[in-house]
Write a structure and sequence with these properties.
- This protein is α+β, with helices and mostly antiparallel strands.
- The chain has helices at 32-38, 63-68, 77-88, and strands spanning 21-22, 28-29, 45-51, 54-60.
- Helices cover 28% and strands 20% of the residues.
- It is elongated, with a radius of gyration of 18 Å.
Length: 90
């Protein structure tokens, strides 16, 4: 990562940045504009990733959203079964 914080061309540099706060019980309160940019709504589930003093929040899509996304992986059912078997040690 470059000193300016750019991980990939324009990715981090173009992110919206705003101050938030941490509540008394450790709750994170990102500003509305940041939540909107990330597509976060009340009740959404997220994954937190912590690394060297930084926290990344990643939205876990619901089933409807996940299935409506463009499919990028191409795999046959047989390949899927073989891979699953290898992972599960079968």
């Amino acid at each position: 990562m470059s000193p300016s914080g750019s991980r990939t061309k324009g990715h981090v540099a173009n992110m919206k940045r705003s101050k938030g706060r941490v509540g008394q019980k450790g709750e994170l309160f990102p500003p509305r504009q940041v939540r909107e940019e990330a597509g976060l709504k009340p009740g959404d589930h997220v994954i937190f990733k912590a690394d060297h003093g930084r926290i990344e929040v990643v939205k876990i899509p619901g089933l409807r959203e996940a299935f409506s996304r463009k499919k990028i992986a191409k795999i046959t059912f047989e390949e899927f079964e073989n891979t699953t078997g290898e992972v599960l040690g079968e």
